[in-house]
Design brief:
heterodimer, A: about 325 residues, mainly alpha, two-stranded antiparallel sheet, globular, B: about 525 residues, alpha/beta, Rossmann fold, six-stranded mixed sheet
Chain lengths: ~325, ~525
């Protein structure tokens, strides 16, 4: 491998090192395809993308928070609140679908607002503040559902159901939603004045403060946005299953954090970034799907996906070091 | 000097007595600077020997050589005629040399006795002898330091002066101390607390301990010390023997001794209406009752030693801290305190003293840093126009001669002077009307200094109000229209460069000015 790398012209060698992780993703892809040819079938590729929708949505909010130099352990709770608020207002109040969407997003924003108050007003560290929200939010869900039973609503308005299963010109609506959020977050974080300020706060908050940036306000907005975004994931999940499943959101927490840090490790300056998070999410979704198709023991799967992740990162980082 | 002269000065060590501790022809160089160049020191038993000099004169290097922290390139240290190993803190400790550092470093929830005996506990067959340690600590404080402090009190409940005495007791409790070095012992103390400390130091002198007393406060040096060595540029430039209350001026002229030259541009400001106004601003224990008026087109300086409250005052003005009382107003309207964003919104640009931590986002490039505080000017609908942003940063970098010229360079790669220009460029880009410059040339080479001075001058000429806080009195005299002097948290004088020379300004900041007196 290294002899092969060394034989490449200098420019493309640098490119390969920067995008080492992409090359490793490609290798994994080929590996899964060889192990099971149906992996590369069109239906399965759509499966992979669909499986990536909720992790991506949650991961985008997480990218924003990590770019602020913080962490949000309560994104799963925000997702649950989005799902719960929407289902309850549909089922118990007969609200129209669009109102349910707005209320669901507001539910997630509420979780973010709680975080913002704890972090900015009470100056609790983001890790501990969002851990607190994580526990309180989880407990509230169990209390509300009398022990954690799902709230199902089979007669969803068709428009709401379409969030998960609908198609526009043959493209699943959930993919369109994810793509729209992806573009929005890309513009927000990589092109807007807000994004520049977010990065300044995350890189060196003392200097950002010295430059007169409203650091507290930026952090607060970041957490509210992250909560609201995770709630969109909750809308997709609740529409898909036609129910609110308490505490389901926490399953996405580790994937979101992992994807953000995979993305950051690929970035030139090691920064969390939207396209990197997308790559991380697709990688995780691909590995989960590929291992599934191989029909491996359920208990073995987590260990294998962990191994693949660590090996891939180690390889790409070794390549990165060799460059410098 | 208005403070009463205590009957302590005293008990002069026998004249002509030989020196107990001798530092002989010590040289120590660091890359790019010769910190000590044959400096020496001789201290008699029972003597309090002052060491003075400006920042960078070599005082702290000399003390660190004595402490064994640095091994000198040349020279030797003799204690009672016997040479002690240099560069070995253990050997120095074993020889009976003790250091009372400026920082207290005491554990707040330990008792006085626990603190004093920490690491040297008394123990008997039944474990620690708590009662014996408490009694021994109290007896030592009483007999050696003339202080009554109960051994079972918590450090957290003590005043700063009492903590200082506990710190001293801890260094001396083993009874083996023969030389004690005090480094700025009074910096955090109030006037009455200083008297308390001085009584203790005097008690030690009577017991025949040789003491070295390093301080910026010349009024203290002239009062408590028997002899004073003056350092400048790593060399001894004078030994005042004996030193008396009237020797402050003599010490200053020995300490200083350089020309300001043509480093500073000439100016002719037209005074306008007050722009920044501080009204009886107070923040205990840092500063109290500060009044200040600053007009557009004017450069006003803040002078004061470390610990004078100068840094805290600047932090309050720029919104990094809140005052306990008093008010700040800009252009006649009160400024919301404690918010840098509010201050920036009112046209205040801050150039912080800790450039690397507070000034620049080091990982961002020069263009992003220049634009950071005024992104709205190069954006449409919330999105940065990247071409416009780069162009503006480029123009700004050229106007200020920032090197390298490529604004895509990461800010951390620039030299100190160029980083400082980037911080100034960021303030300029906001169109600020009030600049607060904290140590504007710290860590900046001489060439870049002159450029920064010219730039500050231009800011004022173009109508900005400029406040310069600096620990370099020569810089303030060269740059400012007026200078306010802070001493122990109070403005003790307002002077103009026309009527004040360097000696007098240094005297004012050190409280060693006979005419001005010190804030009691």
């Amino acid at each position: 491998m290294s002899a092969f790398v060394a034989s490449l012209p200098a420019l493309s060698r640098r490119g390969l090192a920067r995008h080492g992780f992409l090359a490793i993703i490609a290798l994994c892809f080929i590996g899964f395809a060889v192990a099971n040819p149906s992996f590369v079938g069109a239906a399965n590729l759509v499966n992979i993308l669909s499986g990536a929708v909720i992790p991506l949505v949650v991961g985008l909010g997480m990218t924003l928070v990590v770019a602020l130099g913080a962490i949000d352990l309560s994104v799963g709770i925000a997702l649950d609140f989005g799902s719960a608020f929407a289902i309850v207002i549909l089922k118990d109040y007969g609200a129209p679908w669009y109102l349910a969407v707005l209320v669901g997003i507001a539910g997630g924003a509420l979780v973010g607002l709680a975080n913002a108050i704890l972090i900015v007003r009470l100056r609790i560290s983001p890790f501990l503040a969002t851990l607190g929200t994580f526990f309180i939010g989880g407990s509230l869900q169990r209390i509300f559902t009398h022990g954690g039973g799902p709230i199902s609503y089979r007669r969803l308005p068709p428009e709401y159901y379409d969030i998960a299963v609908g198609e526009v010109f043959g493209i699943p609506v959930r993919l369109l939603i994810a793509t729209a959020l992806l573009i929005a977050y890309f513009l927000l974080l990589e092109r807007s004045t807000f994004g520049k300020k977010i990065h300044a706060v995350g890189l060196q908050s003392r200097a950002a403060r010295g430059a007169g940036l409203p650091v507290g306000k930026l952090v607060a907005i970041g957490f509210v946005l992250a909560g609201a975004t995770a709630a969109v994931g909750g809308l997709v999940a609740s529409a898909n299953l036609r129910m609110f499943t308490p505490l389901a959101g926490n399953a996405y927490l580790m994937d979101a954090i992992t994807a953000v840090f995979i993305g950051a490790s690929m970035h030139r300056d090691g920064r969390p970034n939207v396209l990197g998070t997308l790559t991380g999410v697709l990688f995780l979704s691909m590995v989960a799907n590929g291992l599934n198709l191989m029909g491996l023991d359920f208990n073995l799967k987590d260990a294998l996906s962990g191994l693949i992740l660590v090996a891939a990162l180690a390889l790409s980082i070794t390549q990165h070091r060799r460059r410098t | 000097m208005t403070a009463p002269v205590l009957p302590l000065t005293p008990v002069s060590p026998p004249a002509g007595a030989s020196d107990f501790l001798v530092l002989e022809a010590i040289s120590k160089g660091f890359p790019g600077v010769q910190a000590l160049d044959g400096a020496g020191l001789g201290v008699r038993a029972g003597e309090i020997h002052g060491v003075v000099g400006e920042n960078g004169a070599g005082k702290s290097t000399l003390i660190k050589v004595l402490a064994g922290v640095y091994r000198p390139d040349a020279g030797r240290i003799l204690l009672n005629g016997a040479e002690i190993e240099t560069g070995s803190p253990d050997a120095v400790q074993a020889a009976g040399v003790r250091f009372i550092h400026q920082e207290l470093n005491l554990v707040p929830h330990f008792t006085v006795a626990e603190t004093i005996f920490l690491g040297q506990e008394l123990s008997g067959p039944f474990g620690l002898r708590t009662g014996a340690m408490r009694r021994a600590a109290e007896a030592f404080l009483k007999d050696s330091l003339d202080a009554a402090i109960a051994g079972n009190r918590l450090i957290a409940d003590l005043g700063i002066a009492e903590r200082k005495l506990v710190q001293i007791a801890r260094a001396l409790i083993d009874g083996k101390a023969r030389v004690v070095v005090f480094d700025e012992p009074t910096a955090p103390l109030s006037h009455t607390e200083i008297e308390h400390l001085f009584r203790a130091i005097d008690a030690l002198a009577r017991r025949g301990i040789a003491m070295i007393y390093v301080s910026h406060y010349l009024s203290e040096i002239t009062r408590i010390c028997h002899r004073v060595s003056v350092l400048r540029n790593g060399r001894n430039v004078g030994l005042v023997d004996p030193v008396g209350p009237d020797d402050a001026d003599r010490l200053i002229s020995l300490m200083v001794g350089r020309d300001i030259g043509d480093l500073y541009p000439k100016r002719n400001h037209a005074a306008a209406a007050p722009w920044l106004k501080l009204t009886s601003l107070s923040q205990s224990p840092h500063y109290a009752d500060v009044d200040l008026e600053l007009r557009r087109g004017e450069i006003v300086g803040l002078a004061g030693l470390i610990g004078s409250g100068r840094e805290e005052l600047v932090d309050t003005i720029v919104g990094l801290a809140r005052p306990a009382s008093g008010s700040i107003s800009i252009d006649g309207r009160p400024l919301r305190s404690g918010s840098t964003a509010a201050a920036a919104g009112r046209g205040l640009a801050h150039v912080p003293r800790d450039r690397r931590n507070d000034g620049l986002v080091l990982a961002m490039n020069v263009a992003d840093n220049i634009n950071l505080a005024s992104l709205e000017a190069v954006s449409t609908g919330g999105f940065v126009r990247r071409g416009a942003a780069t162009t503006r940063a480029q123009q700004s970098a050229e106007a200020l001669d920032i090197r390298p010229k490529t604004v895509s360079t990461a800010a951390r790669l620039l030299s100190g002077g160029n980083q400082q220009k980037v911080v100034l460029a960021r303030g300029l880009a906001t169109g600020a009307s009030l600049f607060v410059l904290d140590e504007p040339t710290i860590g900046v080479d001489v060439g870049a200094k002159a450029e920064i001075y010219a730039l500050i001058e231009r800011l004022a000429a173009e109508g900005a109000a400029v406040l310069v806080s600096s620990s370099d009195p020569a810089e303030l005299l060269g740059l400012c229209d007026r200078i306010l002097v802070l001493l122990r948290g109070r403005i003790v004088a307002e002077v103009t460069p026309e009527t004040t020379d360097l000696d007098r300004l240094v005297a004012l900041t050190t409280g060693g000015d006979a005419a001005g007196g010190i804030a009691a």
